[in-house]
Write a structure and sequence with these properties.
Strand order of the largest sheet: 6-7-8-3-9-10
CATH topology of the largest domain: Rossmann fold
CATH superfamily of the largest domain: P-loop containing nucleotide triphosphate hydrolases
Shape: globular
Radius of gyration: 20 Å
Largest sheet: 6 strands, mixed
CATH class of the largest domain: Alpha Beta
CATH architecture of the largest domain: 3-Layer(aba) Sandwich
Number of domains: 2
Strand content: 15-25%
Number of helices: 9
Number of strands: 10
Distance between the termini: 54 Å
Oligomer: single chain
Length: 257
């Protein structure tokens, strides 16, 4: 297991945030932690990434104990928080080169160019990040966190505040990460996001994991579904993407002509 916790506990004063958390995350999978605002999702991420010490319990990340071997944990992980941590004055390429040099990665320019291509930003390497859309900033943020070939990436509510197109862009990036063997620990309050991406899902409520398993396992907790034949109407998201996609195709055709 890439991530293991047993009996993880954390309180702030008299307020118990985590009350005996057990988690197992396998290598190369997407693990989604669901919970409402204030449920403790970010607290778990901060403990797993050595930014916060637990009160009790054992926690191992990539085989290393977060309390006794924090430096070894940090060497194998990357963290992307709820808000894109990019420098808006610099260009996208300059942001990537800066991080590569800070992490003492060789051939920083080549690494930056490869990541720009991988994350669909090759057309905007020389633009200041202040001109990027929300989805582009988030993709750049994730790209920056991958410099150094981290085995585990923590994404704390990565699509918060993004429009439908931006969310789908980030979803594709996350899926590509898992397909390449990276272990992804994802926190989200969007149920459709977890349903779309996650190999395993855990629901955090009032300091405890109340249920954990695959989507199919969670579905079995409910009564069997009734088979009914109804006319399916397109969702608003489908309508939005269809219209926007059509507009973009027309613009490309006009430009080509």
């Amino acid at each position: 297991m890439m991530i293991e916790t047993r009996g993880l506990r954390k309180s702030f004063g008299d307020h118990v945030v985590l009350d005996g958390i057990d988690l197992d995350v396998a290598e190369g999978t997407i693990f989604a932690l669901l919970g409402s605002n204030g449920a403790g999702k970010t607290t778990i991420v901060r403990i797993l990434t050595t930014l916060l010490k637990p009160d009790d319990g054992t926690t191992r990340v990539n085989g290393f104990d977060v309390l006794s071997q924090p430096a070894r944990v940090r060497e194998s992980i990357s963290l992307t928080g709820q808000f894109a941590a990019v420098d808006e004055i610099l260009t996208g390429r300059e942001n990537l080169i800066m991080i590569a040099k800070l992490r003492q990665v060789k051939s920083a320019g080549k690494v930056a160019d490869d990541l720009l291509a991988r994350f669909g930003l090759a057309d905007a390497p020389g633009r200041r990040v202040s001109t990027y859309s929300g989805g582009m900033r988030r993709r750049l943020d994730i790209a920056m966190s991958l410099i150094g070939n981290s085995r585990i990436i923590f994404l704390d509510e990565p699509t918060t505040g993004l429009d439908p197109e931006g969310r789908i862009e980030v979803w594709q990036v996350i899926q590509n990460l898992a397909d390449s063997g990276t272990t992804v620990f994802l926190t989200t309050q969007y149920l459709d996001e977890a349903e779309k991406l996650a190999d395993r899902i855990a629901i955090l409520h009032e300091g405890t994991i109340i249920v954990s398993g695959t989507l199919e396992e969670l579905r079995k907790l409910l009564p069997p579904a009734k088979v009914e034949y109804v006319e399916r109407q397109p969702t608003l998201e489908e309508i939005f993407l269809a219209i926007v996609g059509s507009d973009k195709k027309e613009q490309r055709s006009t430009t080509t002509a």
